[in-house]
Amino acid sequence: xxxxxxxLTYLALSLAALLSLIPFIWLLKATLSPSDxxxxxxFKFVTPTLENYHELFTVKExxxxxxxxxxxxxxxxxxxxxxxFCSLAGFALAKYEFKGKKALMAIQLLTVFIPGAVTLGPGYxxxxxxxxxxxxxxxxxxxxxxxxxxxxxxxAMLGVPDELMNAARIDGSTEFGIYWNILMPIVRxxxxxxxxxxxxxxxxxxxxxxxxxxxxxxxxxxxxxxxxVGIYSNKYGMLMAGTFLSVLPVIVLFLLLQKEFLSGLTSGxxxx
Amino acid sequence: MKxxxxxxxxxxxxxxxxxxxxxLTFLIFSAYPYIKSLNYSLYATxxxxxxxxxxxxxxxxxxxxxxxxxxxxxxALFALASILFQLPISLGLALLLSQKWVKGVNxxxxxxxxxxxxxxxxxxxxxxxxxxxxxxxxxxGLAGISRNPAWLDYKWLGEPNLxxxxxxxxSIWLYSGFNMIYFLAALQNVDQELYEAAMVDGANxxxxxxxxxxxxxxxxxxxVLVTATVGSFQLYELPxxxxxxxxxxxxxxxxxxxxxxNGLLPGDLGxxxxxxxxxAVMVAAxxxxxxxxxxxxxxxx
Lengths: 272, 301
Description:
The complex is a heterodimer.
Chain A: H1 2-32, H2 51-58, H3 64-95, H4 101-112, H5 120-129, H6 136-143, H7 147-158, H8 162-170, H9 175-186, H10 188-204, H11 207-212, H12 221-231, H13 236-271
Chain B: H1 2-40, E1 43-46, E2 50-53, H2 57-64, H3 66-97, H4 105-113, H5 120-130, H6 137-146, H7 160-188, H8 192-200, H9 205-232, H10 237-242, H11 255-264, H12 269-293
Antiparallel strand pairs in B: 1-2
């Protein structure tokens, strides 16, 4: 009986893992297949070729390489900006009493519950008035006030004992020094989770970037790929190569930050 | 002495300076557009410059627009069905994985979570190919397993009645692992002594689940339910890339897609705001009902 239930458990888990992973395996195989054999039998061996990747980087409009650069730049710069803004403000909210603190927390909480789609219209108008449409600066500054990040960092920093901070003050550390030298190293696991979450958010988003980034030299990967599907609808091998290269950086980052990520993701919800 | 007073001043000012960069960007680029959109929803606009006051005209129009009705119907159906399938699958997998003797928990967890690393846009492009009739992997797989070649001809993305099942199926693939992570974390936090006590009392597996597991993971269950509902109601990118728009007979038209096509695309930012707030009210009402029914309002965080 015991053996039977254990066998059944592993069977169910294997089935779930297989269903989850097969599309990835198929994707990788498709990118390496000659373009007329993309749909060949899943189990049939094909001689690998880089022809799809070659074609992907030869197409000039939209330029995949350019979009890849834009995505990498916007995601990395966005992560750094949000990391700095959110951790610093989260620190203040966790460790200081100051005027307006309660009001600030309340306003933030309110916006979490309202879908972001509400702000698309006026947000675009604001960017237009500031002359920030179709610019990297507009994309970066617009996302810097990440409320979710503040809560994550506040939560993580609440647990750091005040004695540590007071000891540093006696040693003559400035308040910024306390943040930089003491708090940030302690919340490093949280920082890993936050970076990956923000990176994925920026990397995968389509709606707002497609409004903001209007010329193809500014397009990110989701915009470029969505356009490619329309233009090269029958070049399956090339589309799959583009999809694979668009997913690969996130997978690599995830494998590096896995442990921090999975614990950071659930910390707010489970500990309550 | 002067040094000491400078030191004291920087201590006093520090929190204000620390929140300043965030507060400024938040107020300008988040709070202001939220407030502005309330006001904007009462205007008809043409591009970012021209606006004409129409009162509640936007809301009256959208409530009587059959396209909007269809978008709400599609989105609600998607949310209901995908959650009905996702939650039991996620919880089931988490229960299997939380058994103490299971080996390789990290591997299983990673494998099932993997689809979540792929953004909806990329998932849409990939499944646009996987769901092709005749040659697509999904149809070939279904035909192979069932030994029934009729599956080969299913046009998931071209047949009006098959569009929603396709979207729901893809969302199950995409999000089951995500919810599983939450359930698994909750299950690992359940007090083991409670299980032992229940065992001593002779409770069977189902009774232990009802009496110990379920109450312990209820807060997380509510959290997952509410976030999945809120997320499902904002569906846009998946159908946009999978179907290239609303799909056949607009069966894949969602509320956000309607907002984009009827508000943002023609430049009517006011109408877009009105649709956005209507969506916000629906989502808030649903979340409130879910919290109320599950009695978790007090424990929510």
